[in-house]
User: Which sequence fits this backbone?
Protein backbone atom coordinates (compact mmCIF):
# COMPACT_ATOMS: atom_id res chain seq x y z
CA UNK A 1 0.00 0.00 0.00
CA UNK A 2 2.82 2.31 0.91
CA UNK A 3 4.37 1.92 -2.49
CA UNK A 4 1.09 2.78 -4.22
CA UNK A 5 1.12 6.07 -2.36
CA UNK A 6 4.69 6.83 -3.39
CA UNK A 7 3.82 6.00 -6.97
CA UNK A 8 0.86 8.39 -6.93
CA UNK A 9 3.15 11.08 -5.53
CA UNK A 10 5.69 10.46 -8.26
CA UNK A 11 3.03 10.64 -10.95
CA UNK A 12 1.60 13.88 -9.56
CA UNK A 13 5.08 15.37 -9.51
CA UNK A 14 5.79 14.21 -13.06
CA UNK A 15 2.52 15.64 -14.39
CA UNK A 16 3.20 18.98 -12.69
CA UNK A 17 6.71 18.98 -14.18
CA UNK A 18 5.22 18.17 -17.58
CA UNK A 19 2.98 21.24 -17.44
CA UNK A 20 5.77 23.47 -16.11
CA UNK A 21 8.17 22.46 -18.84
CA UNK A 22 5.50 22.61 -21.51
CA UNK A 23 4.72 26.19 -20.51
CA UNK A 24 8.41 27.03 -20.28
CA UNK A 25 8.90 25.54 -23.72
CA UNK A 26 6.19 27.77 -25.15
CA UNK A 27 7.52 30.86 -23.48
CA UNK A 28 11.10 30.45 -24.72
CA UNK A 29 11.98 31.48 -28.21
CA UNK A 30 13.87 33.91 -30.36
CA UNK A 31 11.36 36.62 -29.57
CA UNK A 32 10.64 37.20 -25.91
CA UNK A 33 6.96 37.49 -25.11
CA UNK A 34 5.70 38.40 -21.62
CA UNK A 35 4.24 35.54 -19.60
CA UNK A 36 0.78 36.99 -19.17
CA UNK A 37 0.52 37.61 -22.91
CA UNK A 38 1.40 33.94 -23.50
CA UNK A 39 -1.31 32.85 -21.08
CA UNK A 40 -3.79 35.16 -22.77
CA UNK A 41 -2.92 33.75 -26.14
CA UNK A 42 -3.24 30.15 -24.97
CA UNK A 43 -6.55 30.85 -23.30
CA UNK A 44 -7.89 32.49 -26.43
CA UNK A 45 -8.04 35.98 -24.99
CA UNK A 46 -6.91 39.06 -26.85
CA UNK A 47 -3.19 39.62 -27.07
CA UNK A 48 -1.71 43.09 -27.35
CA UNK A 49 0.32 42.23 -30.43
CA UNK A 50 -1.23 40.09 -33.18
CA UNK A 51 2.22 38.84 -34.22
CA UNK A 52 2.75 37.39 -30.74
CA UNK A 53 -0.47 35.48 -31.05
CA UNK A 54 0.60 34.08 -34.42
CA UNK A 55 3.99 33.05 -33.08
CA UNK A 56 2.48 31.24 -30.14
CA UNK A 57 -0.46 29.58 -31.84
CA UNK A 58 1.10 28.69 -35.16
CA UNK A 59 4.68 28.12 -34.24
CA UNK A 60 5.40 27.49 -30.56
CA UNK A 61 2.32 25.55 -29.52
CA UNK A 62 2.58 22.97 -32.34
CA UNK A 63 6.27 22.60 -31.53
CA UNK A 64 5.53 21.95 -27.86
CA UNK A 65 2.85 19.42 -28.71
CA UNK A 66 5.22 17.75 -31.17
CA UNK A 67 7.87 17.54 -28.47
CA UNK A 68 5.40 15.86 -26.12
CA UNK A 69 4.20 13.36 -28.74
CA UNK A 70 7.71 12.56 -29.96
CA UNK A 71 9.18 12.21 -26.47
CA UNK A 72 6.43 10.01 -25.13
CA UNK A 73 6.12 7.97 -28.33
CA UNK A 74 9.83 7.18 -28.49
CA UNK A 75 9.97 6.32 -24.79
CA UNK A 76 7.04 3.92 -25.07
CA UNK A 77 8.47 2.28 -28.20
CA UNK A 78 11.78 1.83 -26.45
CA UNK A 79 10.12 0.21 -23.46
CA UNK A 80 8.15 -2.18 -25.68
CA UNK A 81 11.30 -3.23 -27.53
CA UNK A 82 13.27 -3.77 -24.31
CA UNK A 83 10.56 -6.05 -22.99
CA UNK A 84 9.90 -7.88 -26.25
CA UNK A 85 13.58 -8.61 -26.78
CA UNK A 86 14.31 -8.79 -23.06
CA UNK A 87 17.33 -6.68 -23.84
CA UNK A 88 18.12 -3.47 -21.98
CA UNK A 89 19.98 -2.09 -25.00
CA UNK A 90 17.01 -2.30 -27.34
CA UNK A 91 15.34 0.90 -28.41
CA UNK A 92 12.71 2.04 -30.88
CA UNK A 93 15.21 2.00 -33.71
CA UNK A 94 16.42 -1.59 -33.41
CA UNK A 95 13.81 -2.75 -35.88
CA UNK A 96 15.45 -0.67 -38.57
CA UNK A 97 12.26 1.36 -39.00
CA UNK A 98 14.02 4.69 -38.74
CA UNK A 99 16.73 3.48 -41.09
CA UNK A 100 13.96 2.79 -43.55
CA UNK A 101 12.65 6.30 -43.01
CA UNK A 102 16.15 7.71 -43.45
CA UNK A 103 16.55 5.80 -46.67
CA UNK A 104 13.25 7.18 -47.95
CA UNK A 105 14.31 10.72 -47.19
CA UNK A 106 17.81 10.14 -48.54
CA UNK A 107 16.37 8.86 -51.80
CA UNK A 108 14.16 11.92 -52.01
CA UNK A 109 16.80 14.51 -51.21
CA UNK A 110 20.03 12.90 -52.39
CA UNK A 111 18.42 10.91 -55.15
CA UNK A 112 17.12 14.05 -56.80
CA UNK A 113 20.60 15.14 -57.79
CA UNK A 114 21.48 11.72 -59.12
CA UNK A 115 18.34 10.66 -60.86
CA UNK A 116 17.11 14.11 -61.71
CA UNK A 117 13.83 14.14 -63.57
CA UNK A 118 10.64 14.38 -61.60
CA UNK A 119 12.33 13.95 -58.25
CA UNK A 120 14.33 17.10 -58.83
CA UNK A 121 11.27 19.03 -59.80
CA UNK A 122 9.25 17.84 -56.82
CA UNK A 123 8.71 20.52 -54.26
CA UNK A 124 10.64 20.03 -51.07
CA UNK A 125 7.94 20.44 -48.55
CA UNK A 126 7.56 18.81 -45.19
CA UNK A 127 4.96 16.66 -46.82
CA UNK A 128 7.35 15.24 -49.39
CA UNK A 129 9.84 14.32 -46.68
CA UNK A 130 7.14 12.91 -44.46
CA UNK A 131 5.73 10.78 -47.26
CA UNK A 132 9.17 9.53 -48.25
CA UNK A 133 10.02 8.71 -44.65
CA UNK A 134 6.69 6.98 -44.07
CA UNK A 135 7.07 4.91 -47.22
CA UNK A 136 10.59 3.93 -46.20
CA UNK A 137 9.62 2.95 -42.68
CA UNK A 138 6.47 1.18 -43.88
CA UNK A 139 8.47 -1.00 -46.27
CA UNK A 140 10.90 -1.95 -43.53
CA UNK A 141 7.96 -2.59 -41.21
CA UNK A 142 6.49 -5.04 -43.72
CA UNK A 143 9.84 -6.74 -44.07
CA UNK A 144 10.29 -7.02 -40.32
CA UNK A 145 6.82 -8.43 -39.75
CA UNK A 146 7.21 -10.87 -42.63
CA UNK A 147 10.51 -11.99 -41.13
CA UNK A 148 8.97 -12.18 -37.66
CA UNK A 149 6.34 -14.60 -38.87
CA UNK A 150 8.91 -16.84 -40.53
CA UNK A 151 11.18 -16.86 -37.54
CA UNK A 152 10.42 -18.47 -34.23
CA UNK A 153 13.27 -16.96 -32.31
CA UNK A 154 12.51 -13.42 -31.22
CA UNK A 155 16.20 -12.61 -30.81
CA UNK A 156 16.76 -13.17 -34.54
CA UNK A 157 14.32 -10.34 -35.28
CA UNK A 158 16.63 -8.06 -33.33
CA UNK A 159 19.57 -9.02 -35.51
CA UNK A 160 17.51 -8.73 -38.69
CA UNK A 161 16.51 -5.22 -37.62
CA UNK A 162 20.16 -4.32 -37.10
CA UNK A 163 21.02 -5.74 -40.52
CA UNK A 164 18.30 -3.62 -42.14
CA UNK A 165 19.86 -0.66 -40.37
CA UNK A 166 23.33 -1.27 -41.74
CA UNK A 167 22.00 -2.07 -45.21
CA UNK A 168 20.16 1.23 -45.42
CA UNK A 169 23.05 3.25 -44.05
CA UNK A 170 25.27 1.64 -46.66
CA UNK A 171 22.87 2.69 -49.41
CA UNK A 172 22.75 6.19 -47.93
CA UNK A 173 26.57 6.33 -47.95
CA UNK A 174 26.59 5.43 -51.62
CA UNK A 175 23.96 8.06 -52.34
CA UNK A 176 25.90 10.66 -50.37
CA UNK A 177 29.06 9.87 -52.30
CA UNK A 178 27.38 10.74 -55.58
CA UNK A 179 25.47 13.74 -54.29
CA UNK A 180 26.21 17.43 -54.33
CA UNK A 181 27.14 19.35 -51.24
CA UNK A 182 23.87 21.23 -51.14
CA UNK A 183 21.77 18.08 -51.08
CA UNK A 184 24.03 16.42 -48.54
CA UNK A 185 23.59 19.42 -46.30
CA UNK A 186 19.85 19.26 -46.72
CA UNK A 187 19.84 15.60 -45.77
CA UNK A 188 22.11 16.27 -42.82
CA UNK A 189 19.70 18.90 -41.56
CA UNK A 190 16.86 16.42 -41.71
CA UNK A 191 18.89 13.82 -39.83
CA UNK A 192 19.61 16.36 -37.05
CA UNK A 193 15.96 16.10 -36.15
CA UNK A 194 13.57 18.97 -35.77
CA UNK A 195 10.42 19.50 -33.78
CA UNK A 196 9.47 22.90 -35.06
CA UNK A 197 8.45 22.45 -38.65
CA UNK A 198 4.98 21.06 -38.25
CA UNK A 199 1.84 22.88 -39.30
CA UNK A 200 -1.44 22.17 -37.54
CA UNK A 201 -2.52 20.00 -40.48
CA UNK A 202 0.57 17.84 -40.24
CA UNK A 203 0.27 17.72 -36.49
CA UNK A 204 -3.27 16.41 -36.67
CA UNK A 205 -2.21 13.51 -38.91
CA UNK A 206 0.67 12.87 -36.55
CA UNK A 207 -1.61 12.81 -33.50
CA UNK A 208 -4.19 10.53 -35.11
CA UNK A 209 -1.57 7.88 -35.86
CA UNK A 210 -0.01 8.45 -32.45
CA UNK A 211 -3.26 7.87 -30.57
CA UNK A 212 -4.24 4.86 -32.63
CA UNK A 213 -0.90 3.22 -31.83
CA UNK A 214 -1.03 4.17 -28.17
CA UNK A 215 -4.50 2.75 -27.70
CA UNK A 216 -3.36 -0.59 -29.16
CA UNK A 217 -1.08 -0.93 -26.13
CA UNK A 218 -4.13 -1.82 -24.05
CA UNK A 219 -4.22 -5.16 -25.88
CA UNK A 220 -0.70 -6.08 -24.85
CA UNK A 221 -0.51 -5.01 -21.20
CA UNK A 222 -0.87 -8.61 -20.02
CA UNK A 223 1.53 -10.15 -22.54
CA UNK A 224 4.12 -7.46 -21.78
CA UNK A 225 4.07 -8.33 -18.09
CA UNK A 226 4.22 -12.08 -18.59
CA UNK A 227 6.99 -11.70 -21.18
CA UNK A 228 9.11 -10.54 -18.23
CA UNK A 229 9.32 -14.24 -17.36
CA UNK A 230 10.43 -15.22 -20.88
CA UNK A 231 8.44 -16.58 -23.79
CA UNK A 232 7.93 -20.11 -22.49
CA UNK A 233 6.36 -18.93 -19.26
CA UNK A 234 4.28 -16.32 -21.10
CA UNK A 235 2.97 -19.05 -23.37
CA UNK A 236 2.17 -21.30 -20.42
CA UNK A 237 0.19 -18.39 -18.96
CA UNK A 238 -2.08 -18.51 -21.98
CA UNK A 239 -0.46 -15.80 -24.08
CA UNK A 240 -0.55 -16.11 -27.86
CA UNK A 241 3.07 -15.19 -28.44
CA UNK A 242 2.90 -14.63 -32.19
CA UNK A 243 -0.14 -12.39 -31.99
CA UNK A 244 1.22 -10.35 -29.10
CA UNK A 245 4.58 -10.03 -30.81
CA UNK A 246 2.96 -8.75 -33.99
CA UNK A 247 0.89 -6.18 -32.10
CA UNK A 248 3.96 -4.97 -30.21
CA UNK A 249 5.97 -4.73 -33.45
CA UNK A 250 3.14 -2.90 -35.17
CA UNK A 251 2.73 -0.33 -32.38
CA UNK A 252 6.45 0.35 -32.30
CA UNK A 253 6.75 0.59 -36.06
CA UNK A 254 3.81 2.96 -36.39
CA UNK A 255 5.07 5.18 -33.61
CA UNK A 256 8.69 5.34 -34.68
CA UNK A 257 7.67 5.54 -38.33
CA UNK A 258 5.43 8.54 -37.86
CA UNK A 259 7.85 10.23 -35.46
CA UNK A 260 10.80 9.84 -37.80
CA UNK A 261 8.69 10.97 -40.71
CA UNK A 262 7.75 14.27 -39.11
CA UNK A 263 10.68 15.08 -36.88
CA UNK A 264 13.66 13.08 -38.10
CA UNK A 265 15.59 10.34 -36.32
CA UNK A 266 15.84 11.49 -32.70
CA UNK A 267 18.37 9.50 -30.73
CA UNK A 268 18.73 8.57 -27.08
CA UNK A 269 15.20 9.22 -25.76
CA UNK A 270 13.91 5.78 -26.74
CA UNK A 271 16.67 3.77 -25.09
CA UNK A 272 17.32 5.89 -22.02
CA UNK A 273 13.93 7.07 -20.84
CA UNK A 274 12.54 3.59 -20.06
CA UNK A 275 15.59 3.02 -17.84
CA UNK A 276 15.00 6.31 -16.05
CA UNK A 277 11.38 5.28 -15.48
CA UNK A 278 12.45 1.83 -14.24
CA UNK A 279 14.87 3.43 -11.81
CA UNK A 280 12.49 6.06 -10.46
CA UNK A 281 9.62 3.64 -9.91
CA UNK A 282 11.84 0.60 -9.27
CA UNK A 283 9.23 -1.58 -10.89
CA UNK A 284 8.88 -3.72 -13.97
CA UNK A 285 5.11 -3.54 -14.12
CA UNK A 286 4.07 -2.13 -17.48
CA UNK A 287 0.88 -0.64 -16.11
CA UNK A 288 3.22 1.70 -14.27
CA UNK A 289 6.14 1.90 -16.67
CA UNK A 290 4.19 2.81 -19.81
CA UNK A 291 2.60 6.01 -18.47
CA UNK A 292 5.79 6.81 -16.53
CA UNK A 293 8.03 6.45 -19.60
CA UNK A 294 5.59 8.50 -21.65
CA UNK A 295 5.56 11.43 -19.23
CA UNK A 296 9.31 11.34 -18.56
CA UNK A 297 10.00 11.10 -22.29
CA UNK A 298 7.82 14.13 -22.94
CA UNK A 299 9.46 16.13 -20.15
CA UNK A 300 12.97 15.30 -21.33
CA UNK A 301 12.26 16.22 -24.91
CA UNK A 302 10.65 19.50 -23.79
CA UNK A 303 13.77 20.31 -21.77
CA UNK A 304 16.05 19.38 -24.65
CA UNK A 305 14.01 21.46 -27.04
CA UNK A 306 14.15 24.44 -24.70
CA UNK A 307 17.93 24.14 -24.66
CA UNK A 308 18.07 23.74 -28.41
CA UNK A 309 16.06 26.88 -28.85
CA UNK A 310 18.60 29.09 -27.11
CA UNK A 311 16.66 31.94 -25.52
CA UNK A 312 16.52 35.16 -27.48
CA UNK A 313 18.91 33.86 -30.10
CA UNK A 314 18.17 33.24 -33.75
CA UNK A 315 19.82 29.86 -33.78
CA UNK A 316 18.25 26.51 -33.09
CA UNK A 317 20.67 23.74 -32.25
CA UNK A 318 19.96 20.28 -33.68
CA UNK A 319 17.64 18.50 -31.25
CA UNK A 320 19.31 15.18 -31.95
CA UNK A 321 22.61 16.43 -30.57
CA UNK A 322 20.99 17.99 -27.52
CA UNK A 323 19.13 14.82 -26.54
CA UNK A 324 22.39 12.86 -26.51
CA UNK A 325 24.46 15.62 -24.91
CA UNK A 326 21.91 16.00 -22.16
CA UNK A 327 20.82 12.42 -21.79
CA UNK A 328 23.92 10.28 -22.05
CA UNK A 329 25.56 11.73 -18.90
CA UNK A 330 22.29 11.38 -17.00
CA UNK A 331 22.00 7.73 -17.86
CA UNK A 332 25.65 7.03 -17.10
CA UNK A 333 25.24 8.69 -13.73
CA UNK A 334 22.09 6.73 -12.95
CA UNK A 335 23.75 3.47 -13.91
CA UNK A 336 26.84 4.10 -11.84
CA UNK A 337 24.66 4.88 -8.86
CA UNK A 338 22.27 1.97 -9.24
CA UNK A 339 24.70 -0.57 -10.71
CA UNK A 340 22.04 -2.98 -11.96
CA UNK A 341 20.28 -2.65 -15.28
CA UNK A 342 16.94 -4.29 -15.90
CA UNK A 343 15.06 -5.49 -18.91
CA UNK B 1 -5.37 -54.01 -11.47
CA UNK B 2 -8.57 -52.06 -11.13
CA UNK B 3 -7.73 -49.59 -13.85
CA UNK B 4 -11.36 -48.77 -14.40
CA UNK B 5 -11.66 -46.76 -11.22
CA UNK B 6 -8.55 -44.76 -11.91
CA UNK B 7 -8.84 -41.24 -13.18
CA UNK B 8 -6.22 -40.98 -15.88
CA UNK B 9 -5.39 -37.31 -16.32
CA UNK B 10 -2.52 -37.48 -18.76
CA UNK B 11 -1.93 -40.09 -21.41
CA UNK B 12 0.48 -40.56 -24.27
CA UNK B 13 -0.12 -42.72 -27.27
CA UNK B 14 2.87 -44.04 -29.26
CA UNK B 15 4.60 -40.76 -28.56
CA UNK B 16 7.94 -40.03 -30.22
CA UNK B 17 9.90 -37.10 -28.90
CA UNK B 18 12.88 -35.24 -30.24
CA UNK B 19 13.88 -32.38 -32.45
CA UNK B 20 13.08 -31.76 -36.04
CA UNK B 21 15.08 -29.66 -38.45
CA UNK B 22 14.44 -29.25 -42.14
CA UNK B 23 16.94 -31.94 -43.04
CA UNK B 24 16.50 -34.56 -40.39
CA UNK B 25 14.60 -35.80 -37.43
CA UNK B 26 16.49 -36.40 -34.25
CA UNK B 27 14.35 -38.83 -32.34
CA UNK B 28 15.27 -39.12 -28.68
CA UNK B 29 12.67 -41.65 -27.57
CA UNK B 30 9.94 -43.45 -29.46
CA UNK B 31 6.74 -45.35 -28.73
CA UNK B 32 6.14 -43.84 -25.33
CA UNK B 33 2.89 -45.02 -23.81
CA UNK B 34 2.20 -43.48 -20.44
CA UNK B 35 -0.89 -43.07 -18.30
CA UNK B 36 -0.58 -40.74 -15.37
CA UNK B 37 -3.20 -40.90 -12.68
CA UNK B 38 -4.76 -37.84 -11.13
CA UNK B 39 -3.37 -36.80 -7.75
CA UNK B 40 -0.02 -38.57 -8.04
CA UNK B 41 3.51 -37.37 -7.51
CA UNK B 42 5.39 -38.64 -10.54
CA UNK B 43 9.16 -38.52 -10.92
CA UNK B 44 10.84 -38.88 -14.30
CA UNK B 45 14.37 -40.20 -13.93
CA UNK B 46 17.18 -41.06 -16.28
CA UNK B 47 20.75 -40.11 -16.97
CA UNK B 48 21.84 -36.84 -18.54
CA UNK B 49 20.79 -36.38 -22.15
CA UNK B 50 18.31 -39.26 -22.16
CA UNK B 51 15.41 -36.93 -22.88
CA UNK B 52 13.74 -36.10 -19.58
CA UNK B 53 13.41 -32.41 -20.37
CA UNK B 54 12.35 -33.14 -23.93
CA UNK B 55 9.62 -35.41 -22.62
CA UNK B 56 8.41 -32.75 -20.18
CA UNK B 57 8.54 -30.08 -22.87
CA UNK B 58 6.48 -32.29 -25.13
CA UNK B 59 3.95 -33.08 -22.40
CA UNK B 60 3.53 -29.37 -21.71
CA UNK B 61 3.26 -28.30 -25.37
CA UNK B 62 6.45 -26.26 -25.25
CA UNK B 63 7.54 -28.39 -28.20
CA UNK B 64 5.68 -30.58 -30.67
CA UNK B 65 5.88 -34.37 -30.65
CA UNK B 66 7.50 -36.05 -33.64
CA UNK B 67 4.82 -38.71 -33.72
CA UNK B 68 1.92 -39.87 -31.59
CA UNK B 69 -0.32 -37.91 -29.28
CA UNK B 70 -0.57 -36.55 -25.77
CA UNK B 71 -4.03 -36.36 -24.22
CA UNK B 72 -4.94 -34.42 -21.12
CA UNK B 73 -8.37 -35.08 -19.62
CA UNK B 74 -9.31 -37.04 -22.74
CA UNK B 75 -8.58 -34.10 -24.97
CA UNK B 76 -5.70 -34.01 -27.42
CA UNK B 77 -2.96 -31.63 -26.32
CA UNK B 78 -2.66 -30.25 -29.85
CA UNK B 79 -6.27 -29.09 -29.78
CA UNK B 80 -5.80 -27.07 -26.60
CA UNK B 81 -5.33 -23.33 -27.11
CA UNK B 82 -2.61 -21.68 -25.02
CA UNK B 83 -5.28 -20.16 -22.81
CA UNK B 84 -7.15 -23.44 -22.27
CA UNK B 85 -3.94 -25.25 -21.44
CA UNK B 86 -2.91 -22.49 -19.03
CA UNK B 87 -5.85 -23.33 -16.78
CA UNK B 88 -5.02 -27.05 -16.81
CA UNK B 89 -1.25 -27.22 -16.69
CA UNK B 90 1.37 -24.97 -15.12
CA UNK B 91 5.13 -25.06 -15.46
CA UNK B 92 8.29 -24.56 -13.49
CA UNK B 93 11.17 -24.50 -15.96
CA UNK B 94 14.92 -24.59 -15.55
CA UNK B 95 15.55 -21.55 -17.72
CA UNK B 96 16.78 -18.39 -16.02
CA UNK B 97 14.31 -15.55 -15.75
CA UNK B 98 15.26 -12.34 -17.57
CA UNK B 99 16.55 -9.78 -15.07
CA UNK B 100 13.65 -7.55 -14.12
CA UNK B 101 12.46 -5.74 -11.02
CA UNK B 102 9.44 -7.97 -10.40
CA UNK B 103 8.76 -8.55 -6.73
CA UNK B 104 8.00 -12.00 -5.38
CA UNK B 105 4.36 -11.01 -4.98
CA UNK B 106 4.13 -9.71 -8.56
CA UNK B 107 5.79 -12.85 -9.88
CA UNK B 108 3.36 -15.13 -8.05
CA UNK B 109 0.46 -12.87 -9.11
CA UNK B 110 1.38 -13.43 -12.77
CA UNK B 111 0.11 -16.96 -12.21
CA UNK B 112 -3.41 -15.50 -12.14
CA UNK B 113 -3.10 -14.12 -15.68
CA UNK B 114 -5.20 -16.83 -17.35
CA UNK B 115 -8.12 -15.75 -15.19
CA UNK B 116 -7.73 -11.97 -14.95
CA UNK B 117 -9.42 -9.43 -17.21
CA UNK B 118 -7.69 -7.55 -20.02
CA UNK B 119 -5.95 -5.07 -17.74
CA UNK B 120 -4.92 -7.84 -15.37
CA UNK B 121 -6.95 -6.55 -12.45
CA UNK B 122 -6.52 -8.57 -9.26
CA UNK B 123 -9.89 -9.05 -7.57
CA UNK B 124 -10.28 -10.24 -3.98
CA UNK B 125 -10.69 -13.78 -5.29
CA UNK B 126 -7.36 -13.57 -7.13
CA UNK B 127 -5.61 -12.07 -4.11
CA UNK B 128 -6.89 -14.90 -1.94
CA UNK B 129 -5.42 -17.50 -4.32
CA UNK B 130 -2.12 -15.64 -4.51
CA UNK B 131 -1.79 -15.36 -0.74
CA UNK B 132 -2.72 -19.01 -0.34
CA UNK B 133 0.02 -20.01 -2.78
CA UNK B 134 2.51 -17.80 -0.94
CA UNK B 135 1.53 -19.33 2.38
CA UNK B 136 1.73 -22.92 1.13
CA UNK B 137 5.27 -22.40 -0.13
CA UNK B 138 6.32 -20.52 3.04
CA UNK B 139 7.57 -17.43 1.28
CA UNK B 140 5.40 -14.84 3.06
CA UNK B 141 8.47 -13.10 4.47
CA UNK B 142 9.88 -12.68 0.95
CA UNK B 143 6.76 -11.13 -0.58
CA UNK B 144 8.13 -7.64 -1.12
CA UNK B 145 11.61 -8.73 -2.18
CA UNK B 146 12.73 -8.60 -5.80
CA UNK B 147 13.07 -12.09 -7.19
CA UNK B 148 16.68 -11.54 -8.25
CA UNK B 149 17.66 -10.96 -4.63
CA UNK B 150 16.64 -14.49 -3.64
CA UNK B 151 18.76 -17.58 -3.18
CA UNK B 152 18.21 -20.48 -5.57
CA UNK B 153 16.19 -22.39 -3.01
CA UNK B 154 13.93 -19.43 -2.28
CA UNK B 155 13.45 -18.67 -5.96
CA UNK B 156 12.43 -22.27 -6.60
CA UNK B 157 9.71 -22.01 -3.96
CA UNK B 158 8.56 -18.73 -5.48
CA UNK B 159 8.27 -20.37 -8.90
CA UNK B 160 6.28 -23.21 -7.34
CA UNK B 161 4.03 -20.62 -5.71
CA UNK B 162 3.47 -19.03 -9.11
CA UNK B 163 2.45 -22.39 -10.54
CA UNK B 164 0.13 -22.93 -7.56
CA UNK B 165 -1.48 -19.54 -8.06
CA UNK B 166 -2.20 -20.62 -11.61
CA UNK B 167 -4.51 -23.18 -10.01
CA UNK B 168 -4.10 -26.02 -12.48
CA UNK B 169 -4.75 -29.73 -12.13
CA UNK B 170 -1.27 -30.59 -13.34
CA UNK B 171 2.03 -28.97 -12.40
CA UNK B 172 5.12 -29.93 -14.37
CA UNK B 173 8.54 -29.11 -12.93
CA UNK B 174 11.78 -29.59 -14.83
CA UNK B 175 14.54 -30.44 -12.36
CA UNK B 176 13.17 -28.34 -9.52
CA UNK B 177 16.12 -29.12 -7.29
CA UNK B 178 19.00 -28.44 -9.66
CA UNK B 179 21.64 -26.27 -7.93
CA UNK B 180 20.11 -26.84 -4.50
CA UNK B 181 21.90 -28.25 -1.47
CA UNK B 182 20.54 -31.37 0.19
CA UNK B 183 18.55 -29.43 2.79
CA UNK B 184 16.76 -27.31 0.20
CA UNK B 185 16.32 -30.31 -2.06
CA UNK B 186 14.47 -32.07 0.73
CA UNK B 187 12.48 -28.94 1.41
CA UNK B 188 11.30 -28.71 -2.20
CA UNK B 189 10.52 -32.43 -2.41
CA UNK B 190 8.51 -32.49 0.80
CA UNK B 191 6.68 -29.33 -0.28
CA UNK B 192 5.67 -31.03 -3.52
CA UNK B 193 4.66 -34.18 -1.65
CA UNK B 194 2.55 -32.10 0.74
CA UNK B 195 0.87 -30.29 -2.16
CA UNK B 196 -0.04 -33.55 -3.87
CA UNK B 197 -1.54 -34.86 -0.64
CA UNK B 198 -3.43 -31.74 0.37
CA UNK B 199 -4.59 -30.37 -2.98
CA UNK B 200 -5.02 -33.48 -5.08
CA UNK B 201 -2.97 -31.91 -7.85
CA UNK B 202 -0.91 -34.08 -10.17
CA UNK B 203 2.74 -33.15 -10.01
CA UNK B 204 5.23 -34.40 -12.58
CA UNK B 205 8.91 -33.67 -12.12
CA UNK B 206 12.14 -34.66 -13.74
CA UNK B 207 14.96 -35.18 -11.31
CA UNK B 208 18.45 -36.48 -10.72
CA UNK B 209 17.81 -36.85 -7.00
CA UNK B 210 17.00 -40.53 -7.44
CA UNK B 211 17.32 -41.51 -3.80
CA UNK B 212 15.12 -38.72 -2.49
CA UNK B 213 12.56 -39.26 -5.23
CA UNK B 214 12.44 -42.97 -4.32
CA UNK B 215 11.37 -42.03 -0.82
CA UNK B 216 8.75 -39.46 -1.74
CA UNK B 217 7.33 -39.92 -5.23
CA UNK B 218 4.30 -42.13 -5.87
CA UNK B 219 5.22 -43.25 -9.33
CA UNK B 220 8.25 -43.28 -11.54
CA UNK B 221 9.00 -43.01 -15.19
CA UNK B 222 12.44 -44.36 -15.97
CA UNK B 223 14.05 -43.41 -19.24
CA UNK B 224 16.77 -45.82 -20.30
CA UNK B 225 18.62 -46.36 -23.55
CA UNK B 226 16.33 -49.10 -24.84
CA UNK B 227 13.15 -48.90 -22.88
CA UNK B 228 10.86 -46.79 -20.83
CA UNK B 229 9.59 -48.19 -17.56
CA UNK B 230 6.80 -46.76 -15.49
CA UNK B 231 5.07 -47.74 -12.29
CA UNK B 232 5.41 -47.59 -8.53
CA UNK B 233 8.76 -48.27 -6.93
CA UNK B 234 7.57 -51.73 -5.92
CA UNK B 235 6.54 -52.68 -9.44
CA UNK B 236 9.77 -51.34 -10.85
CA UNK B 237 11.91 -53.13 -8.26
CA UNK B 238 10.22 -56.37 -9.16
CA UNK B 239 11.05 -55.79 -12.82
CA UNK B 240 14.65 -54.89 -11.91
CA UNK B 241 14.07 -51.73 -13.88
CA UNK B 242 16.19 -49.51 -11.64
CA UNK B 243 19.29 -51.51 -12.56
CA UNK B 244 19.04 -50.22 -16.11
CA UNK B 245 19.00 -46.58 -15.13
CA UNK B 246 22.75 -46.05 -14.86
CA UNK B 247 25.83 -47.86 -16.15
CA UNK B 248 26.52 -50.70 -13.77
CA UNK B 249 30.25 -50.16 -13.21
CA UNK B 250 29.81 -47.51 -10.53
CA UNK B 251 26.33 -47.52 -9.11
CA UNK B 252 23.99 -50.30 -8.27
CA UNK B 253 20.48 -50.45 -6.92
CA UNK B 254 20.11 -52.00 -3.51
CA UNK B 255 16.73 -53.68 -3.31
CA UNK B 256 16.53 -53.97 0.45
CA UNK B 257 17.44 -50.32 1.04
CA UNK B 258 15.41 -49.22 -2.01
CA UNK B 259 18.26 -46.84 -2.74
CA UNK B 260 21.08 -46.46 -5.22
CA UNK B 261 24.47 -47.15 -3.70
CA UNK B 262 28.05 -46.76 -4.83
CA UNK B 263 29.65 -50.06 -5.73
CA UNK B 264 32.43 -51.10 -3.40
CA UNK B 265 35.46 -52.54 -5.07
Assistant:
Amino acid sequence: MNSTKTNINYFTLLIVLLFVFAFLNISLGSISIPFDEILNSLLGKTVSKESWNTIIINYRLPKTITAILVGSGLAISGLLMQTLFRNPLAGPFVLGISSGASLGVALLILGSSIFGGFLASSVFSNWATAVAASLGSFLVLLAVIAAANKIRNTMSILIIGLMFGSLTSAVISVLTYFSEAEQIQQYMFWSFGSLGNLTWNELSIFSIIYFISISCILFVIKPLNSLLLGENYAKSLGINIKKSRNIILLITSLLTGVITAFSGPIAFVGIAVPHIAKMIFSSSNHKLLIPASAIIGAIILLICDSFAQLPTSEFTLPINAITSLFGAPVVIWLLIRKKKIYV
Amino acid sequence: MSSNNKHIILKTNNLSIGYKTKKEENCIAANINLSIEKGKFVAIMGKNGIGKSTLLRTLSKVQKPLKGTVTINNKKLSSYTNLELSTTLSLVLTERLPLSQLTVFELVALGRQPYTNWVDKLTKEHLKKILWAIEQTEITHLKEKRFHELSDGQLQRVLIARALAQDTEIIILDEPTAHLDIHHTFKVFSLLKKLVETTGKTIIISTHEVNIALQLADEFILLTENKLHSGTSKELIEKNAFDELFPKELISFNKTLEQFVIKKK
User: Anything to note?
Assistant: Chain B touches chain A at residues 60, 62, 81-87, 89-91, 93, 95, 97-102, 106-107, 110-111, 113-114, 116, 118-120, 166 (CB under 8 Å). Helices of chain B lie at 52-59, 82-86, 104-109, 124-136, 152-165, 182-199, 210-216, 233-238. The mean pLDDT of chain B is 92.
